[in-house]
Specification:
- The complex is a heterodimer of chains A (436) and B (495).
- Chain A is of the alpha+beta class.
- Chain A starts with a helix and ends in a 15-residue tail after the last helix.
- In chain A, 32% of the residues lie in helices and 24% in strands.
- Chain B has 495 residues and is of the alpha+beta class.
- Among the domains of chain B are: 98 residues, Uridine Diphospho-n-acetylenolpyruvylglucosamine Reductase, domain 2 (2-Layer Sandwich); 118 residues, Uridine Diphospho-n-acetylenolpyruvylglucosamine Reductase, domain 3 (2-Layer Sandwich), CATH 3.30.465.10; 110 residues, Alpha-Beta Plaits (2-Layer Sandwich), CATH 3.30.70.
- The chains are: A alpha+beta (436), B alpha+beta (495).
- The complex binds flavin-adenine dinucleotide.
Chain lengths: 436, 495
């Protein structure tokens, strides 16, 4: 019997590209699977995985397909497994501030649902508007400006239901905010790019919605005054929800502080009095450095945070990268790259999230210059004891710009975990571990 | 054991002893029976096992060499911090070696601008805050045992404390570790940066209960002390009202730094020892600590006071100054020890429930207490639903300790039935491994074993803990592969 026919019988919906059947709206996958499966239940996912593992068929799980540019390219899986039809909210207990959702649910939809109870799922990853799903969010562990206050979804995930590569359905973690029973496998799922299990449900801790929100945009004439102000903000008795530094290009493109060499974006969410007091403090401690100081809580601020959230993923770029740095190094990072000749002639954009030690970079350049820029960034990160990942790498550069920097001594353990969870590697291990 | 086997054991024992002395020097190897007694148990003294030896390494390299020796000789080993654990996690293995990290107690680096402290595992929890306090920083996880317990133990147990409601538990404050793997290899996972990439191995190591290797260095995140801290002490006639206040406060949008409830029995035990100023006639007290920017806290104090009153608080006291605030917390942190005043024996339980089930589960605990005829004092981290029922018993009365243990188990069942967990911070260890199947089925426990096997194929590192039944590490291959027909060939049938 045909493997494909067998797989089709296991699920509620499927699409065979090129066969003339109706395409239920497949997103662009960056590879051509033989078949796309649309299970509607966890049991269907389990049957597919059980069968695939017994038959050695490679499966690529996805939902919104909004972040397929992360990690190394996948090597032609036979089956693309869409989790898009598993999209229900299964549980939300407002007084516990905990909710369980299926992984195909869009993050925005989830946020709207908990918002009706005046609660917040405080993660704002890129691609939010283009259909980012909860499953994709967990498996990429991407985050946005709000990570300054709330961290990433690693900090919020309490439990997970997943289908192992061999088809077993497992429920790990729990539905309570504190729990140390057994290894924290739900956290292991965050950032694993779906290479260990197929995540089908996740339980998260929620936060209360804050009554008042105000955004500040501070402009600076030079790097020195900006980094002085950034340090003062970090040291102050304030709790910003978002705190970002933009380089000159982004300052102008985000239309926040045109003419500024640098700008700082801040957002405060709290009671009205507390927001006002924190704004006053920021004004006091930065007044000697700033060239402009703008307060906003209207449409403009929404647009601004949308731009900050979506950066650095742009189709025009040769690649984007995220750097994990010590906090002080992240503040100085902008001047480190600006003053370096290795990047002259290259169009670089950079946003720094100092409280997280994160720098996001987008490089627009011809091939050779882009490769040189990637080598420069890698060397710089090594010298700063940081880590780097590259994404959205232009197809011509794949192989010359590697998705991951050095995993260091963790690599052997990571491979050990992968081998235990998915010994036949049916879940595209090459996304993390380069082939060869 | 037959005499030949005994002789072999004796011979290998002396060979191992001399190897250990060669690696560490004689002063760092304990083998005298009377000295080993101190290491027979952790804070859960009901279980006792005498180890073969206890060793006191001074460096990562020492630990690595000792572990490599254990690996060669197939000798089990158990890491140990201060031994304050309450789940038997540091209980020695029979015929095994205890590796005490107490000599590795230096703070290696304090980097205020980057908000990182690098500490050896034997550093006592409170010392981290002491090292950065003058600069206006602190280390947030604050177990009640913080003046004794070690960072290594905290990492292994993913310890919490009274201020974890807002700031999270140990896993939210560890950026990286250096560890000696069970084969003796030294690895660093994570580091001084707040973010990292790749599989989140750190989340496995934090909370691994000493089963994945020995942590020899920890990168800790320190945070700024809040501008303002205010502590409210509210008293209630009924503990259920204190519980309802907790949910109401959080639903209002306020996340206090900590919210702790103590019932009448605990209040009186504490008052007879510490004299914290708690009202001894109250049915329960709720401590609420609010911290953050001054303007925020100033708004929160009256808002929370109003909620407390609406939920039946009969008296609300705002700590007048720092010393009264410290006294309120001293009372809470001394609660376990104070039980010694009102009962010759007590059993500390650690379960978690959803906040919304607080009143129901407390009622069930009351029923269980009546049914078993044993008093149960309730002290708990109410904000995150982490209960610590203290089952009081008299070890001098025959069968009473068994009854207390049984009652404790029933409490855990009630927690799990309410959708909670068998442990919020003390770990599974030796004591609760039999309860793990209440939460997880065989496949789920097998999945946890996959993690263990990726780190410790031989199962020599702290064996006999966490897993309810011994599990081996068969070679990866749980998947069968279709051998006779390749999928590529079969696909032709469809197209
Ligand atoms: C009075 C009292 C109050 C307490 N209050 C709290 C509380 O509020 N919150 C809380 O969470 N806990 C609390 N505890 C429990 C206990 O203090 C914590 O679990 C603590 O983290 C244990 O630290 P320790 O150094 O004593 O570790 P130990 O008891 O020595 O060991 C605990 C576990 O850690 C492992 N371990 C130790 N060091 C290492 C290392 N370097 N590498 C790998 N594994 C290691 C051991 O093998 C063992 O499994 C309390 C205990 C007492 C007695």
């Amino acid at each position: 019997m045909s493997y494909i026919k067998e797989l089709c019988r296991m699920v509620s919906g499927f699409h065979v590209p090129g066969s003339g059947d109706t395409d239920p709206g497949v997103p662009e996958l960056r590879f051509s699977p033989k078949i796309i499966l649309y299970p509607e239940t966890v049991e269907e996912v389990s049957s597919v995985m059980g069968f695939a593992s017994q038959s050695g068929i490679r499966v690529f799980p996805f939902a919104g397909a909004s972040k397929l540019f992360l990690g190394n390219p996948v090597i032609a899986p036979v089956v693309a497994l869409s989790l898009g039809r598993l999209r229900r909210m299964l549980f939300h207990e407002p007084s516990d501030m905990v909710s369980t959702v299926e992984c195909g649910m869009e993050v925005r939809e989830f946020q709207k649902a908990v918002g009706r109870e005046n609660q917040l799922f405080p993660v704002d990853p890129p691609c939010l508007a283009s259909g980012a799903t909860v499953g994709g969010l967990v498996s990429t562990n991407l985050c946005g400006p709000m990570s300054t206050r709330y961290g990433t979804c690693r900090e919020l995930i309490l439990g997970a239901k997943a289908v192992r590569a061999d088809g077993e359905v497992i429920n790990l973690g729990g539905k309570v905010v504190k729990n140390v029973a057994g290894y924290d496998i739900p956290k292991l799922m965050t950032g694993s790019l779906g290479t260990l299990c197929v995540l089908v449900e996740a339980t998260f801790r929620l936060y209360p919605h804050q009554p008042c929100s105000t955004t500040l945009v501070l402009g600076f004439h030079n790097h020195v005054s900006c980094s002085r102000a950034a340090r003062a903000v970090l040291a102050a008795d304030i709790v910003p929800t978002c705190f970002e530094i933009l380089d000159e290009r982004l300052s102008s493109e985000f239309e926040v502080a045109s003419g500024a060499k640098r700008s700082i974006l801040l957002r405060f969410d709290s009671f009205e009095e507390a927001v006002a007091e924190q704004i006053k403090q920021v004004r006091d401690i930065t007044s000697e450095q700033t060239s402009s100081f703008v307060k906003m809580n209207d449409e403009r601020s929404c647009k601004l945070w949308d731009s900050a959230r979506e950066f650095p993923f742009s189709r025009k770029a040769a690649f984007s990268s995220k750097l994990a740095l010590p906090i002080t190094a992240s503040i100085e990072f902008l001047s480190d790259i600006e003053s370096n000749s290795a990047l002259s002639g290259v169009e670089v954009r950079c946003l720094v999230r100092p409280a997280r030690g994160v720098a996001l970079v987008s490089v627009v350049a011809p091939d050779e210059e882009a490769v040189a820029a990637s080598v420069f960034l890698q060397d710089l990160v090594d010298s700063l004891r940081g880590r780097i990942m590259f994404s959205g790498i232009r197809p011509e550069l794949v192989g010359r710009v590697k998705a991951w920097g050095d995993f260091g001594e963790s690599l052997t353990l990571m491979k050990g975990i992968k081998k235990r969870f998915d010994p036949a590697d049916i879940l595209h291990g090459e996304k993390i571990f380069p082939v060869g | 054991m037959d005499s030949q086997a005994a002789e072999i054991t004796t011979r290998s024992k002396s060979r191992i002893a001399s190897e250990l002395v060669r690696i560490l020097g004689p002063g760092a190897v304990i083998s005298a029976e009377d000295e080993l007694v101190a290491y027979e148990s952790d804070g859960l003294t009901g279980y006792r096992v005498k180890p073969l030896f206890v060793v006191l390494p001074s460096s990562t390299e020492d630990v690595s060499r000792v572990v490599a020796l254990c690996n060669r000789e197939k000798v089990p080993f158990v890491p140990r911090g201060a031994g304050t654990g309450l789940s038997g996690g540091a209980l020695p293995s029979r015929e095994g070696i205890v590796i005490s990290l107490s000599k590795m107690n230096r703070i290696l680096d304090v980097d205020i601008p980057n908000r990182v402290v690098v500490a050896e595992p034997g550093v006592v929890n409170i010392s981290v805050t002491e090292a950065v306090s003058a600069e206006g920083f602190y280390y947030a996880p604050d177990p009640s045992s913080q003046i004794v317990c070690t960072i290594g133990g905290n990492v292994a147990e993913n310890s919490g404390g009274v201020h974890c409601l807002k700031y999270g538990v140990t896993t939210n404050h560890v950026l990286g570790v250096e560890m000696v793997l069970p084969d003796g290899d030294i690895v660093t996972i994570g580091g001084p940066t707040p973010e990292s990439f790749g599989y989140d191995l750190l989340s496995l190591v934090v909370g691994s209960e000493g089963l994945l290797g020995i942590v020899t260095k920890v990168f800790l995140r320190i945070i700024k002390k809040p501008q303002m801290v205010k502590t409210l002490l509210a008293s209630f006639e009924r503990i259920e009202d204190a519980g309802a206040s907790v949910s109401a406060i959080i639903s209002s949008g306020v996340i206090p730094a900590g919210m702790e409830i103590m019932d009448n029995l605990s209040i009186n035990a504490v008052e007879s020892t510490v004299g914290a100023g708690y009202p001894t006639d109250a049915g329960a007290i709720l401590l609420v600590e609010l911290d953050g920017p001054g303007a925020e806290v100033s708004v929160q104090v009256p808002a929370v006071s109003r909620i407390l009153r609406e939920n039946g608080a009969v008296e609300i006291k705002l700590a007048a100054d720092e010393s009264e605030r410290q006294l309120f917390w001293k009372g809470r942190k001394s609660a376990f020890a104070a039980m010694g005043k009102i009962s010759p024996g007590y059993y500390v339980q650690d379960g978690v429930i959803p906040r919304s089930s607080l009143a129901r589960v407390l009622g069930e605990i009351g029923e269980l207490s009546k049914r078993y005829g044993l008093r149960v004092a309730n002290v708990f981290h109410a904000g995150d639903g982490n209960l610590h029922p203290l089952v009081l018993y008299d070890p001098g009365v025959e069968g009473e300790s068994e009854k207390a243990e049984e009652l404790s188990g029933e409490i855990l069942r009630a927690c799990v039935d309410a959708g909670g967990s068998i442990t919020g911070e003390h770990g599974v260890g030796f004591d609760k491994k039999r309860f793990l199947p209440l939460m997880f089925n065989e496949q789920e426990i097998d999945t946890m074993n996959l993690v263990r096997c990726a780190f410790d194929e031989e199962g020599l590192c702290n064996p006999g803990k966490v897993f309810p039944t011994p599990r081996t590490c068969v070679e990866p291959g749980m998947h069968k592969h279709g051998s006779e027909t390749s999928p590529a060939k079969e696909m032709g049938e469809l197209f």
